[in-house]
Task: structure prediction
Amino acid sequence: MCADKHLSSWAEHFEELLNRLTPANTPDIFVADEDLPIDCGKPTKAEIRKAIKQLKNSKAAGIHEIQAKVLKVDPEILAEVLYGLFEKIWEDLLRHYGVPMKFVNLIQNVSC
Result:
């Protein structure tokens, strides 16, 4: 039951995030000279480890109240744990609801 509640919460979050109305005043964004490669694959353990190591120690903890220095104690173990969590989110939510393709389509439409 708890897992279903979490899945519903994530689904609701992404629905709200991705299905907003277009703002009345759009910013002037210029087209880039070249397209950058966009990787829409799930994050790798190496990317997660790199992100953990790049956390700033002097920043305030988020709503979870876990300080960055605590998360950085063992980046290898944390990356393993987070990889499993991200993989679950990726497979169960993002792929199920097609969110990555929405991102890709949005980005491609903006850059055309």
Q: What stands out?
A: Residues 42-112 form one domain.
